[in-house]
Amino acid sequence: MSEDFNMSMRKFLKQVGVTSQQAIEEAMRKSGDTSGKSFEAKMVLTVDGIELEHVVTGKIEGA
Description:
Number of domains: 1
Pfam families: DUF6494 (PF20104)
Strand order of the largest sheet: 1-2
Order of helices and strands: HEE
Radius of gyration: 15 Å
Low-confidence stretches: none
Mean pLDDT: 95
Structural class: alpha+beta
C-alpha cells in the first residue's frame, strides 16, 4: 500500500474516532445520570467500491 493511501486512511480513522467520541459524550450528557449503567454499542463501517462491511461491538460504561 502506498504512503498516500496509509495517510488518507489514518486521517479518516482519526476523524471517525474523534467525532464518534464527541457524539457519544453529547448523547450521554443529554441522557442524564448514566452512572452504574452500561450501554451496548455497535459501529458499522462500510466502504463503497470494495464491498466492505465491518462491524465492531462493545460496551460503554456510564460515568
